[in-house]
Amino acid sequence: MREYCGRRSLESVAQLTREHDTVVGLSGAVRSAHRDGDVARTARAAREIAAVLAPHTRVGEHGSFPAPAEEFPDPIAVLEAEHRTVEAVPEEAATTVPADPGWPERLLDAPALLREHVLEEQDGVFPAAPASPTADRWEAVEAVRARVGTRLPERTA
Question: Within 10 A of 134 (CB to CB), how many other CB atoms are there?
Fold first, then answer.
C-alpha cells in the first residue's frame, strides 16, 4: 500500500483505508452469496457494506474532500456522485431482502465502480488531504470521524 509521502501512519487515513478494504472484502461475500443463490445472505452482506459506508462517506465528504475540492472541484464532485451510486444499491436491503429480482445483479455491478473509486480516493484524495497547508483542515477529518464513528471492529495488536 502506498505510504502517502510518509503520512500513511495518520490514523484517519489508515481508518479510511481499512474501511475501503472491508467494503471490498464484503463485496466478495456478496459475490459468493449470489453465486450460491442465497439472496438473504446477499442482503445481509449488502447491509454490512451500507453500515461501513455510511460513516466512511461522511468522513470523506465533510473531512478529507473539502481541502482538495478547493483546487479540484470537478473530480471531487465525481467522487461524491460515486458515493451516492455505490451506497444506493446496498441501502435497498436496509430492512429486508429487496423484492426486485434485478437487485442482486445491480448489487454485483457496484463493486467494479467501488474498486475504481477506492483507487481514486487512495491515490488522489488521501495523499492530498494531509498535505493541506493548514493543520485545521486535517483536524476537520478527525473531528468528523469523532462525530460519526466507524462500523469497523476494534483493532487488536
Answer: 9
> What single string gives the DSSP state of each residue in the chain?
---TTTTTT-HHHHHHHHHHHHHHHHHHHHHHHHHTT-HHHHHHHHHHHHHHHHHHHHHIIIIISHHHHHH-HHHHHHHHHHHHHHHHHHHTTSSS--S-TTHHHHHHHHHHHHHHHHHHIIIIIHHHTTT-SSHHHHHHHHHHHHHH---SPPP--
Place of cell 472491508: 22
Contact 90, 49 (CB under 8 A): yes
Cell 495518520 sits on residue: 10
* pTM summary value: 0.78
pLDDT tens digits for 59-99?
888 887 887 788 888 988 988 898 888 888 899 999 999 99
**Please, are residues 55 and 151 in contact by the beta-carbon 8 Å criterion?**
yes
